[in-house]
Amino acid sequence: MRLGIYSDLVYQRDGETLSNNRAFIRFVTSLPPRVSELVLFGRLSPVPGRGPYVLPTEAVRVVGLPHYERATKIWSLLRAVRGSAGIFAAQCEHLDAVWIFGPQPMSMVFAWIARRRGVPLVLGVRHDYPQYIRNRLPSRWWLWAVPVAAGMDIAFRRSAKFAPTVALGDALARRYSRGAAVMRTGFSLVPRSELRSLDAALAVRWDGDRIVLSVGRLDREKNPLLLLDILAGLRAEDPCWRMVIAGDGPMRDQMQLRIAELGLADAVTMLGEVPNGSELWELYRRSQIFLHVSFTEGLPQVLLEAQAAGVPVVGTDVGGVAEALGDGTYGLLIPPADAAVAIEAVQRIAGDADLRRRLVSAALEHAAQETLEMQLDRLADFLQDAVETYGRGSAEGSRAFGPRSGRVHRRGWAEGHT
């Protein structure tokens, strides 16, 4: 199968090497050899450089689209649409299917082109788009963008009547169950080889320094300042607690100021962004607790990474966090913005070996079912079924996605009605 994929990503070129700065690209470029060729559509940066994720060259091809800096540069975006549409339409003739991630302005155009050209179309959804836009408005003058995003979200969901959808988490999968088949996935980046054994996870020592790890962007919706309040509270009772923060973002300077105010300079290590891979896996394995305190979330990949490393998790009960933690089976759920409850949860795990065993054992079993390889195998089956049912010239092309209409797929082709 020759599969085209569009997600709103920017690719960088350094000589013959193409790269990207989003860990998600590791998931999609792992599809070969499950597909014969992967064609990635994305903006090509005019500035030479290299991101942390180098693209493989075998069975992966990048089709560069006109560059625009960001979606808030409206006129630049609109100028890019025409050229991008022509490039995408020309490539459609050589593809067996296209997987379009949205809703987003360019994805709406590409989905329309694919349908007009009769190319089997699969939708991809990773965000609650109106909420995603609401949390990223540059100023109050951009409030108009929220209803626009809601309109695109409605239009994209209507497309799910005739196009199958791959959705991140159960909540989005339910929203897109409007006729065609829906596959729920987590876009795992944890390979089978990185799963930790239960014995190794339970052998972690708790009688010396205790490290709390956080991995994520330092921006408002992630509420990173709360991490420091939690650490200060923990250290007030036990100075053995330390914190490692992997991530970068616009609140980094505020974090540094707050660290100084709380007198935590010797207890906090800020690493900046750590690319997904072996260095990150080692961070998890060197930690006693994983702490996640966001205000909003989809289905956080970092929670699955912590589970695979056998690290007990404490996470705020927002968005898809409860789903990722099995409603408390794989980690402890806490309310957002409540340092006292978070401190209590961390201390509870630290003081209860039986609780740690239950959480870690359940988490490792869950992670073993959601490795990169297992999710890719399920996805490849879903995409192949899409091509067979919704191929070029198929009578299903203008109707719903064949006889599997309305089903939500989780384990292979296991199904549940919504």
Features:
single chain; 418 residues; alpha/beta; Rossmann fold; 2 domains; six-stranded parallel sheet; 15 helices; 17 strands; globular; disordered C terminus
Account of the 3D structure:
Strands 1, 2, 3, 4, 5, 6, 7, 8, 9, 16 and 17 form an eleven-stranded mixed sheet that branches. The chain is globular and about 65 Å long. It is built from 15 helices and 17 strands. Helix 3 links the parallel strand 6 and strand 7. It has two domains: 2-188 and 374-417, Glycogen Phosphorylase B (Rossmann fold), CATH 3.40.50; 192-368, 3-Layer(aba) Sandwich (Rossmann fold). It has 418 residues and is α/β, with parallel strands linked by helices. Mean pLDDT is 90; it is low at 395-418.
Ordered list of secondary-structure elements with their pairings:
Layout: E1 2-14, E2 17-20, H1 24-28, E3 37-44, E4 53-54, E5 60-65, H2 74-92, E6 97-101, H3 105-117, E7 121-125, H4 129-134, H5 145-159, E8 165-168, H6 169-175, E9 182-185, H7 198-202, E10 210-215, H8 225-237, E11 241-246, H9 252-261, E12 268-272, H10 278-285, E13 289-292, H11 301-308, E14 313-316, H12 321-324, E15 332-334, H13 339-351, H14 353-368, H15 372-389, E16 407-409, E17 415-417
Parallel strand pairs: 1-3, 1-6, 3-5, 6-7, 7-8, 8-9, 9-16, 10-11, 10-13, 11-12, 13-14, 14-15
Antiparallel strand pairs: 1-2, 2-4, 16-17
